[in-house]
Specification:
The protein is α+β, with helices and mostly antiparallel strands. It contains eight helices and 17 strands.
Length: about 325
């Protein structure tokens, strides 16, 4: 959605608070390719008349502490300069609060910004966020609340991967060599060779389902993995989660299906099923989920769509 007026005039529009704006910078996002971007962001936001404070964080834990403090101090908004990992950390602090989020896409993967309708172009996204700040209006969107059996809660905005893609990510994270994208490519080849269906028990709004599958993704929005439309029907303002499951397919079938995910046409394959629910419980052995591209919790988890949990600039 590139028209900055439309989302601010709809039924999910809400006023923005009067506090300051915190610009949170991840200097390692996109391997440091956007080094001049934080200054541009701060200058553009300051031109709206708001007090702006820029903070550079080195670790996820530090970023979360800074954001929680900003929320406690009544910040009107936290504007992130980074990718999905940066956004994921900020969501843990702003979910359910009066502090808005403004994600300037400056990372390797910018699936959250894409999924909530912000322009893919960094400069255009910044203008959209600045326009919302000037008008003092935000959009209220859903977030997904993930709860472990021990009651610990974590939030995500895009997709929870809990099948083949999560297993590949786990493999890549355990590998020391090679460095860079090749490590992920090798992890894919290793896990394709080891591919086997996993048995899942899933409850959709309390209704039990059991099945074998090689891929399972649960989306609050449509995109993951750098622009793949894994949950093509997912919308962040409908109060529902979209579950996409690929059954016990062969390696060759999975390889053929994967490129279709960028267009979202994989859901037309006879071995792919889609479901919608507000609350989804997922259980399977030996799988750790990845939400917003970040390693989260071993299954089982319970995920609930929480309407209006996020205030978005843009």
């Amino acid at each position: 959605m590139t028209d900055t007026d439309t989302p601010l005039d709809g039924p999910t529009a809400a006023p923005l608070g009067e506090g300051a704006v915190v610009v949170l910078v991840n200097p390692t996002a996109a391997h440091g390719r956007h080094r001049g971007l934080p200054e541009q962001v701060a200058q553009r936001l300051a031109a709206t008349g708001r007090a702006v404070r820029t903070i550079e964080t080195g670790t996820a834990a530090q970023a979360r502490t800074v954001c929680e403090q900003a929320v406690a101090e009544g910040a009107a908004a936290i504007v992130t300069v980074g990718g999905d990992g940066t956004v994921h950390g900020v969501l843990q602090a702003v979910a359910g609060s009066a502090t808005a989020l403004g994600p300037v896409p400056g990372g390797t993967g910018n699936d959250f910004a894409l999924g909530v309708g912000l322009p893919a172009d960094t400069a255009q996204a910044l203008e959209t966020i600045a326009g919302a700040l000037t008008r003092g209006r935000v959009r209220r969107l859903d977030l997904a609340r993930m709860t472990r059996p021990d009651g610990v809660v974590r939030w995500f905005g895009t997709v929870l991967a809990a099948g083949f893609d999560a297993i590949v990510n786990d493999r890549a994270n355990r590998m020391r060599l090679p460095r860079g994208p090749r490590r992920y490519d090798i992890a894919v080849l290793i896990e394709l060779a080891r591919l086997r269906p996993r048995h899942y028990t899933v409850h959709l709004d309390g209704v039990r389902h059991e099945f074998d599958a090689v891929l399972l993704a649960l989306g609050n929005t449509a995109y993951y993995g750098g622009g793949m439309r894994i949950c093509p029907s997912a919308e962040p303002d409908d109060g529902l989660l979209d579950l996409v499951v690929a059954g016990p397919v062969r390696r060759t079938t999975l390889v053929r299906i994967k490129p279709q995910v960028y267009r979202g046409t994989h859901v037309n394959h006879p071995q792919v099923r889609s479901y919608r629910a507000r609350t989804v419980e997922i259980a399977a052995e030996g799988i750790t989920g990845y939400a917003d591209g970040e390693r989260t919790e071993p299954l089982p988890v319970t995920v609930t769509a929480v309407p209006g949990a996020l205030r978005l600039l843009g």
